[in-house]
Amino acid sequence: MPRPFVAVPSWEPPPDPERPAAEACGDALMTTASPWAPEVRPYLVERAVSERADVAPPVECARPRVAASRPSVADALGATAGGITPDELALLGPLAGYAASGPVTDLFLNGERGLWVDRGAGPEHEPSWSADESEVRALAIQLIARGGRHVDEATPAVDVRLGRGIRVHAVLPPLSSSGTLVSVRIPRIADFPLAALAKAGMLDGDQEAALRRAVSERRNILVTGAGGTGKTTLLGALLGEAGPKERIVLLEDVAELRISHPHIVSLEARQANLEGSGRIGLDVLLREALRMRPDRLVVGECRGPELRELLAALNTGHDGGAGTLHANSLDDVPARLEALGSTAGMSPDAVARQAVSAFDLVVHLERHDGRRRVRQIGRFELDGARLGIAPC
Fold it and tell me: What is the pTM of this model?
């Protein structure tokens, strides 16, 4: 089969001989704006090198040696539920076929030790994947670059968004003692209405009715749970129930929420540049969002000092807001809020008084045997001067 014609991008001066070959190869591929298919990339490097005699011989980039039976993006996309397009999956390069192989929620690439795929029942090792450390590092550099950020020794841990919500996180050695780590989150059940989640077993009929009523009555909702329990999915479904004439302003560290609503305004935090300046965090975005006349103010995940700004906003007439928070159980939520409040200089008493009046409902999710479901719905209360929580 003849090779497809590929336009060769402009080539930069020869790479620094002191620099690792894998990084040089990653930079070469980063000069392309298009999501080249894995089968095309080696030919792209070969063509570019053949037309520039002053360039060092090519190195093998992150192109895993996989079995011929690996599913293609186009073939497997029909099994996905999140509306992810082939072009979006192609941004994942050699990981694209695995991301499309059924109801995949996460991919974990642990250096040269291999690839693990989570299809809803927990991570499973993928025997058809094989790549050494230099290849994994080159792949990490490519993926982060496609999200508009950089990962290197100065910034060895980076989170980016690809397409409309594929989240990629990369960690380089020496921050990682086990090689380059790449974690990919695939929004498989984004844009699903609340009724579909209830039908899938995430919540029962009473819980569905209670949450619909809370959205209709513009209650402020905090969705909690451990990683991978479906917090983002449930939050997106809840916001999809908001009235079509309401303006939702959404703030995220890395944009991944996808909401079926006609009026969504999304803001995404920005990391510092190579000089260490230019960072814009969620706390700054929250202050800007208040000037945008939001009908519903939403923080994708509270992780630090932005909690102070959110509590202040929800206590000053901004009802119908929402956010998510990592917590192992409903009883652990008050302690988590106090810990985050301390990063913003808030005392436990201040956190308690503001949280009680800011949030009307706390919805806690858990994951058991691969199934995500609403475990409890509670509300904050004052236990003396401390923050407590009681089930509804």
Answer: 0.67
